[in-house]
User: Fold these one by one.
Assistant:
Number 1:
Amino acid sequence: MSHVEIDLKSAGAARAYDLMSNLIVPRPIAFVSTISASGHANLAPFSYFMIGGPNPPSLAFCPTLGGGGTPKDTLRNLEETGEFVVNLVTRSMADGMNQTSAPYPHDFDEWEVSGFTQVSSSHVRPARVAESPLSCECRVFQIVSHGEGAGASRYVIGEILAMHVAENLLSGEEIGRIEPIARLGGPDYIDLADGSRFALQRPKA
Ligand SMILES: Cc1cc2nc3c(=O)[nH]c(=O)nc-3n(C[C@H](O)[C@H](O)[C@H](O)COP(=O)(O)O)c2cc1C
């Protein structure tokens, strides 16, 4: 196989974004529930998301800085409170999840446009999404900054305190097959239930 080498530093951030988000796929989606210190609930999806090691159980996701280097609401809330819930997203949840990704004002409650049902968490203040087959209650371990300005990374590393797993996934001897959607390049997603692909345009606030 022959390859083209691209120097990402000179390519610039916009090109780097296109290359990374179109080529490093599929990415699972962390649908993150937080609450600000003043009590405003927030829901938003993040596909720069991975699990960490199991001891202690951890995960990480990356809310990049927005235009002008401003932190997204999820990051602001986590800097204030340190508590969040990561919910996985299935095909039937895709439209509601996408609705929450518009750039709403800081005190806007995205649960209202999502259509999802809140369930109280056991260990943290933010609610979990009842419709999700897996929710992880988390506490921030560390937020790591890499870069400044629009597109710079803020890695939120969280310790998973508790998991809420759909009963049908735990009914047999082995853990059942979960079927979330995952992010591809551009507007595209893949549904792991049947391997089909679909596209969603991002909504405006
Ligand atoms: C499927 C999907 C995945 C996304 N992944 C990320 C991501 O990993 N990092 C990020 O900064 N924004 C990501 N976004 C955009 C954020 O969801 C969007 O900026 C949102 O408004 C942030 O909400 P907040 O300001 O309430 O935290 C994604 C959007 C969608 C629809």
Number 2:
Amino acid sequence: MNLLVCGGAGFIGSNYCRYVLRTVPEDRIVILDALTYAGHRSTIEDVLATGRAEFVHGRIEDRDRVRQILTEHRIDAIVNFAAETHNDRSLLGAEEFLRTNVLGVQSLLDACLDSGVQRMVQVSTDEVYGSIGSGKWTEESPLLPNTPYSASKAAGDLLCRAAFVTYGTPVLVTRGGNTYGPYQYPEKLIPFFCTRLLTGKKAPLYGEGEQVREWIHVDDHCAAIDTVLRKGVPGEAYNISDANERQNREVAAKILEALGMDESRIKRIPDPRKGAHDQRYSMDSSKVRALGWEPQVPFEEGLRQTVNWYRENERWWRPIVESEPYRRFVERFYGPVLGEDL
Ligand SMILES: NC(=O)c1ccc[n+]([C@@H]2O[C@H](COP(=O)([O-])OP(=O)(O)OC[C@H]3O[C@@H](n4cnc5c(N)ncnc54)[C@H](O)[C@@H]3O)[C@@H](O)[C@H]2O)c1
């Protein structure tokens, strides 16, 4: 197949390219990425070096560009990772989130209509469901997003449903849990903690760190997305979960342990959200498991490997944490609460 991987220079998208190149020798990949603050060429150097993937710089909302790529490269399937992805940033301003996560998705759906594309996978998130005290969400649970980020992702999901119902567009949606692994932009919890601790700084934890998230290794998440692409039923959504629920403070403790550091390196900070912080995410993933997918990476092992990857790949993350957009965000968001520990 010829795959168009949108957002392929980001965290999960680049790991997905590696996964496909490793597992499906006949597939070729075109990466379309806007290289926002979160996308970097250094993230896909190895992917492009295989000679089976090429890079196009552009935005998914650019309808003409997308159509041109679909025709020129005879694209069979689209996997869309392109998104504004950081919840905390969406609290500071939501416009970019709407542009990419809503208008961008519609642009891809429209482009599918008059092209030879046989499948599109829209990569979404468990955050569209909101927060759940007990039990698990199924794919039929209502979408009740609580932040501008998750609301924009829910809008993207619903546009996919509408395209399928109205035009029969062969689109599938995946809703994955919190993902960790190599090449994750260091604003998200695990790489944020690793890179701050490795540079001698304190790592900030909201409140007592009691929020519960489901963690999944990026290789498992990518394998599930690929299973949905090749075996899923168009028009359907699939939850992707390792059923691995952890409180944030437990994740923090395991990172400290892997780095041989103690609790004194954590600074507890008040949550900047004026309303409630989503307390717990938990999904039933029997639907994707029925397609033959099973997670393979145990959390303790995956986390140890990930922490080691950040320890050994300062060359990748150092220029990012020293970049202007990164420093501006950390100062603006954490400055008021971290004070002298910034
Ligand atoms: N990281 C997680 O824990 C997680 C969990 C579940 C779902 N997801 C979803 O997975 C997808 C990928 O997440 P990620 O963590 O890899 O994100 P990321 O922020 O690391 O990467 C996003 C990529 O999209 C590119 N991009 C942004 N706007 C674009 C546009 N308009 N046109 C083209 N490219 C654009 C960026 O340059 C970047 O390379 C997202 O849709 C996200 O909602 C992420």
